[in-house]
Hints:
Layout: H1 2-16, H2 24-30, H3 35-46, H4 50-68, H5 73-79, H6 85-96, H7 100-103, E1 131-135, E2 138-148, H8 153-167, H9 170-175, E3 183-188, E4 196-204, E5 215-219, E6 222-230, H10 235-251, E7 254-256, E8 261-265, E9 277-286
Antiparallel strand pairs: 1-6, 2-4, 2-5, 3-4, 3-8, 6-9, 7-9, 8-9
Helix pairs in contact: 2-3
Amino acid sequence: MESLQRLVDSIDFIERHLDGDLQIEKIAKISCMSKFHFQRMFHMLTGFTVGEYIRNRRLTRAAEELVQSNSKVIDVALKYGYETPESFTKAFRNIHGITPSAARKKSQLLKAFPKLSFQIQIKGDVEMEYKIMEKEAFQVIGKGIQTSTVNGENNRNITAFWNESNNNGFSEALAKNCGPLGLIGVCADFNPQQENMTYFIGAEKQTETYPTEWQELEIPKATWAIFPVKGSMPVAMVKVWERIFSEWFPSTGYEHAEGPELEVYLSDGDPNSVDYYSEVWIPIIKK
């Protein structure tokens, strides 16, 4: 669990430098993780992107300072990383629902986002199955959507995308072109802050003939950690994702290789069944 302790150290560093220059590269270095792996682990464990967490903490501190001091709004804005009063006011209103000036008035409701803390526990009472496999690059065909990861928007959008695909015949049409991996959900193209991503529903390319509105996506050659998922969707899948980042990565010598992540739906059975089988594939490198 050493990596989780280092994550705690990175939270402490963020807290000490909320009024300074916080670069994700430096925060990740404190955690002894690559920038991508640190951001991915942080988001999976906390539900916040690193940038989202820093913004929330800074705006919490800013509200406290406006209420408890006579500091000018522009001075507070600059202190917490906003170059103009307008950008600060917009961000402040998005969080607190009122302007910075209004926050000075008595009896105004404000939101506080507490500093994160982790209770590090040694788990392992339930074994976690996985296998390591190398696979050459391959193409998938299908459709994708762009989605934000902020405030869990990606989870809502991906669920809606699957429901739409299952109801409009797309999943059925795609299944007719499936390779050995069946239907595949691909998490890819994370932006540098990991606050936006592409989610692609596809299948291994088996033909050169497919509808013109479908797209191709290349999955690079990688070493994959493959985790079986047993149970109804999406609950069973979510639990395995959580365990990968809270238990498996911290207890192994592997790190995320920054490539696309795969949800592999091999089974033709009922996704709502307790016996449904699927897999999570994550590209890895040895630290």
